[in-house]
């Protein structure tokens, strides 16, 4: 009996060793890397564990928030169960740190002399502009990662995943949280013909939407708390600018409060604008406009 148990364990260890070396047991999500726009870029791909289906039915691209990481969707939000349930592949890209050395230097100096801790270690090139002033003197007034082609990066991810996993191109969605929501809208306005729908959680639109063509039509599902103080639902002008020590941090975004460009709060303040229509042509408001009664 003892000999039999020993042999069983021996064969089990042997089987596990063979499985690991043969790739039978694989990481999920899988880390993918590519060179794009002169930068090393990364993204995670999770494939649904659905034994009843031979392959996934579609793709959802998940964009993380300001200073966050692609790992959030698996370590904090735990979207694996959702992927398994929907039978959709989830791809989560990683944003780059701010690439403008002048912006980084200015923010570092402000942080040093005011004890602020604003980090630009992970920001999307989504048209969001940051402004900082001390005693009323503007020291920073820049669009974050304005020269980074994150729209092209997302396109490349979609192409790679559709090809590798033989997915239907008509079943691609994009989802973003906070600044990832800004990037989702930015992508949809530029390449909305590739999407079947958009989901934004506590996000809105940056300055990059100013001169865009809003002809793309798609279903939009926008989640936002009316009491959100970091990304205000109403988009009220100046109301939520943050003053820390002697520094006043604000952001510029597209707001439908009077349909004008406004200085709003850091890191992402919002004003909702119903830009999209669904496939039938019926208007689909992103959320209730700030000027509408509750």
What is the number of independent domains?
1
Structural class, judged by helices and strands? alpha/beta
Distance between the termini: 74 Å
Low-confidence stretches: 1-7, 14-24, 236-244, 252-294
Strand content: 15-25%
The H-and-E topology, N to C, reads as HEEEHHEHEEHEHEEEEE
CATH C-level label: Alpha Beta
Query: Taking all residues together, what is the mean pLDDT?
Result: 75
Radius of gyration over C-alpha positions, nearest whole angstrom? 22 Å
User: Percentage of helical residues?
Assistant: 25-40%
Number of strands: 12
CATH architecture: 3-Layer(aba) Sandwich
Describe the main β-sheet briefly: 7 strands, mixed
Strand order of the largest sheet: 1-2-4-3-7-8-9
Structure annotation, total helices: 6
CATH superfamily assignment? Alpha/Beta hydrolase fold, catalytic domain
Q: What is the overall silhouette?
A: globular
Output the CATH topology. Answer: Rossmann fold
At a glance:
The chain has 294 residues and is of the alpha/beta class. The chain is 26% helix and 25% strand. Helix 5 (150-165) crosses helix 6 (179-191).
Which secondary structure elements does this structure contain, and how are they paired or packed?
Blueprint: H1 2-22, E1 30-36, E2 39-46, E3 58-63, H2 72-75, H3 80-86, E4 88-93, H4 101-114, E5 129-134, E6 137-143, H5 150-165, E7 172-177, H6 179-191, E8 197-201, E9 220-223, E10 242-244, E11 247-255, E12 260-265
Parallel strand pairs: 3-4, 3-7, 7-8, 8-9
Antiparallel strand pairs: 1-2, 2-4, 5-6, 5-11, 10-11, 11-12
Helix pairs in contact: 5-6
